């Protein structure tokens, strides 16, 4: 391997694109130009700007990455805040302040102004009286905090932040609030879309959960007596509304989080106990991303240091970490973040006053996962955790020492009290004695200094896609499909930094070393253990998303949260892709009897439409959207089918990639088997899906195709009889696929396409019948003259969908097999599936089978390469008439059935790339594949990186 190759790495195309789109201003074209602007702006706060500008640029060039708003707005004319996020108070009164907190609608106005200037906002809504509480002034009942959260939600949706991004919000409710159950389930039906929500839990509550004790739900305001007849007032003056079992309440939180990824859990006792300023403030909420617990009007002034910059001799015999260079940049970074507090535009005077009194900053690191890989340490090992803790300790000590130096030069923060600040169990009390002595003597400039935040697009733009924050890499590479201004798309290969360094140094990417460990390949407990190792050295908090697989056991999931509390963490966020998060149709349950189209007496549930909830799309179900290209070709198997109706050859191709995987079939047929090649073409696409059960069901259906022909042939150890060439094809392919071991579904194996069917068998109409659409097809060249029929039904969400097709008249009988295949495809909930099948058939050609016919929906005609191609076009047109596909056969709403093509289609097991996961709708590509990754929104279908928090 050659170390010099690393220094010569050109920036990735995606890095430049993100830089130009999000951070470059006024003609800037490079990272260096952005850094010079930021260094110049922050140096203006110094007595000698000319001295500090080059020092600040050096720190930026050597690994310091200020928060996104600092990079995008510092040194520009944009009147936006350089601060990412704030926490703001909300009182119980509609308009009047109470206990130092502003009324609800004043809070709403303040939040709107903050978001207009570019800041996200966190709130604790626990002061607002519960639903059913007494409102003395109007002799009425309160509507509760969740109802007011909806007002904040709509306001956030309306107010566009500076830089044209929507504001982010965090909503917190204490676990003791009487409306906590409503809060837990507030987002179940898609409400509060502009909020992250978290329950603030106390040690007392967690102890009650452990002991299976009772838990009282209380508030300062008296309940209406008829609403809560068993309520009473405690000695401390609070009203007890009702009592619940602690474990039942905890179970509700866990189930909702398991299904919806929310609410999060904040361990408020630990947050306040560890707070350096617990002597003068109480923390009740966090910023929207969770890494900054803050008091009222507190802000997060963030920046990160790229740890990959300090790895020497990566992947060598003795790789090392340059602590001296790291600590030098940490010290300068603290000075720069402190200057941000004086440079920024403050949306509110209260925020400015709070910042000046305490001068909080939040310096963290990014690239930890990649740095450990380059040091040849596994992220999920004890050795890896120890080294991460060592780096964190070095960062803490350098940051605090630098802040003491700033206090000597510029003064300590105004609310500093040495004895109280250094008292146990504050984070500052754990500092080395020498630094504590300096703080006691000179004071300290910043009350808090450390925060590990998600780095999202700043990692892409400024750190060569180093792993995000404290996270391990999510994937080694993926394809970023970016929508361009002209409406087209541009594809970029995005590589993980450590993977790229390994490749550039000559490493074998097909056999990555065991220390290349990715986020989804380690246990959830290993994720949590890394946070626990680093947390003692971080004075605010750490943003960490624990991504767990869809089949992660609920008991283990619940245990993870309990272990997080026992380990002294301040909070935990998880993401589990699942059918609820990935739901793509808004289908409301109905109390009426389900629609029964069976018409049969056997009560077969697979023949009924009882869709009260929508199945998930068949996400990530195709291995290869197109035929894979292999330089050395691929092995194939050939079988000759012989029969009275004519002979034909069947070819099944496969690839060797750890195990034999069939991916195509085709036939060499005569005129007697017209249409058989079209069946083989669509069947090849089924072979490329990640669902053996689906392929088996397609082949079994094809093998049952009837007809008036006669085939009898020896296949393996048995004699096969068939009355159509289509049925013979189905049996032959089934035999070969079974030989390759690619037909039987293994225990625990997913079946994404089968699971996405809205009817596993063709629904049968009752006596009232069902709807159908028909059209005449005539091909004079081949003498085809028939009617195409398409059966349709209405799903419970009101959408009309085709579910079966057949032909009547004069046509090649083998097309009956094609109708069987496409009818099954129609019943996949994601219309991208049938759209893909039909688009592939548009180019299907037959010798002397082309003909001239009208373009569906238009008054002009064109030449069609075959009858099959025209059928495909007619079906696409019908789907377009129903508003499901466009006339080009592309879904009106993407659901994520297609897998983005990767740089290497046949990577080894260790060569992990992004696989699409069920999630929310992506604003970039429209796929329902937007998940939370490393605290940020990330589309697993197109690679879009969205808002953090």
UniProtKB/TrEMBL annotation:
Its EC number is 1.17.4.1. Pfam families: Ribonuc_red_lgC (PF02867). Keywords: Cobalamin, Cobalt, Disulfide bond, DNA synthesis, Nucleotide-binding, Oxidoreductase. One of its GO terms (biological process) is DNA biosynthetic process. It is an enzyme of class 1 (oxidoreductase). Its cofactor is adenosylcob(III)alamin. GO terms for molecular function: cobalamin binding; nucleotide binding; ribonucleoside-diphosphate reductase activity, thioredoxin disulfide as acceptor. Residues 591-601 have a biased composition (Polar residues). It catalyses: a 2'-deoxyribonucleoside 5'-diphosphate + [thioredoxin]-disulfide + H2O = a ribonucleoside 5'-diphosphate + [thioredoxin]-dithiol. Residues 591-612 are annotated as: Disordered. Residues 84-575 form the Ribonucleotide reductase large subunit C-terminal domain. PANTHER family: RIBONUCLEOSIDE-DIPHOSPHATE REDUCTASE, VITAMIN B12-DEPENDENT RIBONUCLEOTIDE REDUCTASE. Catalyzes the reduction of ribonucleotides to deoxyribonucleotides. May function to provide a pool of deoxyribonucleotide precursors for DNA repair during oxygen limitation and/or for immediate growth after restoration of oxygen. Belongs to the ribonucleoside diphosphate reductase class-2 family. This is Vitamin B12-dependent ribonucleotide reductase. It comes from Crenobacter caeni. The lineage of its organism: Bacteria, Pseudomonadati, Pseudomonadota, Betaproteobacteria, Neisseriales.
């Amino acid at each position: 391997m050659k170390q010099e190759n690393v220094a010569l790495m050109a920036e990735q195309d995606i890095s430049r694109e993100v830089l130009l789109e999000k951070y470059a201003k006024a003609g800037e074209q490079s990272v260096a130009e952005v850094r010079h602007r930021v260094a110049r702006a922050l140096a203006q706060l110094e007595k000698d700007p000319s001295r500090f500008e080059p020092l600040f640029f050096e720190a930026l060039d050597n690994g310091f990455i200020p928060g996104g708003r600092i990079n995008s707005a510092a040194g520009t004319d944009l009147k936006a805040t350089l601060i990412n996020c704030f926490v703001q108070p909300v009182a119980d009164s509609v308009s009047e302040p109470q206990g130092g907190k502003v009324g609800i609608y004043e809070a709403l106005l303040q939040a709107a102004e903050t978001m207009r200037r570019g800041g996200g906002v966190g709130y604790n809504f626990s002061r607002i009286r519960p639903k059913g509480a007494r409102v003395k002034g109007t002799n009425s009942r309160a509507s509760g905090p969740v109802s007011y959260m909806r007002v904040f939600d709509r306001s956030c949706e309306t107010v566009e932040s500076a830089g044209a991004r929507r504001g982010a919000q965090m909503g917190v409710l204490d676990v003791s609030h009487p409306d906590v159950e409503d809060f837990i389930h507030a987002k179940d039906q898609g409400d509060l879309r502009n909020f992250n929500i978290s329950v603030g839990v106390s040690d007392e509550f967690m102890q009650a959960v452990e002991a299976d004790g009772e838990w009282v739900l209380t508030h300062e305001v008296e309940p209406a007596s008829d609403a809560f007849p068993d309520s009473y007032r405690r000695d401390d003056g609070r009203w007890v509304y009702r009592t619940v079992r602690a474990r039942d309440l905890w179970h509700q939180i866990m189930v909702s989080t398991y299904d919806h990824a929310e609410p999060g859990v904040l361990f408020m006792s630990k947050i306040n106990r560890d707070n350096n300023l617990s002597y003068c403030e109480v923390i009740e909420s966090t910023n929207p991303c969770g890494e900054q617990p803050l008091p009222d009007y507190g802000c997060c002034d963030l920046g990160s240091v790229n740890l990959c910059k300090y790895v020497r001799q990566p992947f060598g015999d003795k790789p090392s970490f340059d602590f001296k260079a790291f600590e030098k940049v940490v010290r300068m970074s603290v000075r720069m973040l402190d200057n941000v507090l004086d440079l920024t535009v403050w949306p509110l005077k209260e925020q400015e006053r709070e910042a000046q009194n305490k001068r909080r900053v939040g310096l963290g690191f990014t690239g930890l996962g990649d740095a450990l890989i380059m040091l040849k340490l596994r992220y999920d090992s004890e050795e890896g955790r120890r080294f991460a803790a060592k780096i964190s300790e070095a960062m803490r000590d350098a940051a605090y020492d630098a802040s003491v130096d700033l206090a000597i030069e510029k003064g300590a923060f105004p609310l500093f009290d040495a004895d109280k600040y250094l008292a146990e169990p504050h984070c500052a009390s754990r500092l080395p004695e020498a630094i504590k002595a300096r703080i006691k003597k000179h004071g300290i400039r910043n009350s808090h200094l450390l925060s590990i935040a998600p780095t999202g697009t700043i990692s892409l733009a400024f750190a060569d896609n180093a792993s995000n924050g404290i996270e391990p890499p999510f994937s080694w590479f993926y394809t970023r499909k970016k929508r361009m201004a002209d409406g087209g798309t541009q594809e970029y290969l995005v590589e993980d930094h450590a993977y790229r360094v390994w490749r550039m140094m000559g490493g074998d990417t097909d056999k990555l070393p065991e220390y290349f460990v990715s986020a989804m390949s380690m246990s959830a407990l290993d994720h949590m253990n890394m946070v626990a190792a680093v947390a003692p050295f971080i004075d605010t908090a750490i943003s960490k998303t624990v991504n767990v697989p869809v089949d992660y056991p609920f008991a283990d999931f619940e245990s993870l949260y309990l272990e997080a509390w026992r380990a002294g963490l301040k909070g935990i966020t998880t993401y589990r892709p699942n059918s609820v998060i990935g739901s793509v149709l808004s289908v409301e349950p109905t109390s009426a009897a389900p629609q029964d189209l069976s018409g049969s007496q056997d009560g077969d549930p697979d023949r009924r439409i009882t869709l009260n909830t929508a199945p998930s799309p068949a996400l990530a179900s195709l291995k290869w959207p197109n035929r894979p290209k292999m330089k050395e070709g691929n092995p194939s198997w050939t079988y000759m089918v012989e029969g009275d109706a004519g002979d034909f050859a069947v070819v099944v191709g496969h690839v060797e990639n750890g195990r034999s995987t069939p991916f195509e079939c085709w036939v060499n047929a005569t005129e007697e088997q017209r249409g058989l090649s079209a069946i083989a073409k669509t069947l090849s696409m089924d072979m490329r899906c990640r669902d053996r059960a689906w392929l088996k069901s397609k082949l079994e259906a094809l093998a049952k195709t009837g007809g008036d022909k006669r085939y009898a042939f020896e296949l393996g150890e048995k004699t096969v009889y068939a009355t159509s060439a289509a049925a013979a094809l189905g049996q032959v392919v089934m035999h070969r696929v079974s030989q390759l071991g690619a037909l039987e579904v293994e225990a625990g194996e997913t079946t994404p396409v089968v699971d996405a069917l809205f009817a596993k068998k063709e629904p049968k109409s009752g006596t009232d019948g069902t709807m159908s659409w028909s059209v005449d097809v005539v091909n004079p060249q081949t003498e085809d003259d028939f009617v195409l029929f398409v059966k349709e039904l209405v799903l419970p969400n009101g959408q009309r969908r085709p579910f079966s097709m057949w032909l009547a008249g004069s046509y090649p009988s083998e097309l009956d097999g094609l109708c069987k295949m496409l009818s099954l495809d129609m019943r996949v909930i994601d219309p991208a599936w049938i759209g893909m099948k039909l688009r592939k058939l548009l180019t299907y050609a037959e010798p002397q089978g082309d003909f001239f016919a009208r373009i569906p929906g238009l008054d002009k005609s064109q030449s069609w390469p075959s009858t099959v191609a025209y059928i495909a076009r007619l079906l696409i047109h019908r789907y377009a008439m129903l508003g499901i596909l466009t006339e080009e056969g592309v879904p009106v709403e993407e659901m994520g059935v297609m897998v983005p093509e990767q740089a290497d289609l046949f990577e080894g097991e260790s060569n992990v790339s992004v696989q699409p996961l069920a999630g929310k709708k992506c604003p970039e590509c429209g796929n329902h594949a937007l998940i939370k990754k490393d605290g940020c929104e990330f589309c697993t279908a197109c690679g879009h990186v969205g808002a953090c928090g």
